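Let us practice reading a record.
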Amino acid sequence: MTKTKYTPPIVSASEYKPSESITALIYGPTKSGKTFFAGSFNSPRTVYINIGAGIATLYSPLAIEQYGKPEFQLINITEDFENPKMYMEVSETLNYFFEPDRLDTFDTIIIDDASAMNYAAMNQGMTVSDAVGRSKALGISRKLGVNIPGRQDFGMQMSLMDQFMRFFTEQSKAFNKNFIVLAHDKEVYKGEGEKRQISKLRPLFTGNNDIPAYFDLVWMMESVAGGKGNIYRAITEGDEIIEAGSRWGGIFPTKYKNPNYKEIKNALDTLTPIVQK
């Protein structure tokens, strides 16, 4: 048998396109501007998967003044976190839009929010663990009428969320689609009593795994007082406490006021840093 010499796929550097689509994990406390930022993707070609209660922001006078009346393809998923089918409904919705004959119907998918989805993933995890005999927590929980997950169920929950985010960030990149995930924040503390302090701020569904690494942008939103009311601001670079970062260093202000998709896309397409006063 003749051995074929491998030839690497050489591509001219001039053909490289820095940003055909973006994947972003946007997290922060309630009313920090996550959904308001999502409003900057307002378009009939945006699929908005509404799981939590944040979407009301997009119907506020301020959001309509800024982005116009919502034109999203709106998908409402039940808020019954006790229902394990909820996790599968979100997965099946994304699979539906990634079917070959529907790829031309959208440019962006937004999940609002992954923290709510995480609770459903726990119930799905308990169902899976029960089916394979790894945990008896599901039967006990049903008997008592309250969820009492076992240690194995937490592992299954994180595994499900990890698989979901890894697969759909890869799908989005492969088909040049924006994939935007909103989430609440989780405060991790160290010390006790008067010495107790926040040691870490991270997205509320990521646990200790590598989910943030799948995204181009991981930003923490905050709302700060301004001269004409509150200003929404994204922390784009992390430190010893805040988990944040961008795949393209030097493009975004460290504290990015009122971030919006058009400005972000233009900056990435031209590799021009955004300058704010």
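A brief commentary: The chain has one domain: 13-270.
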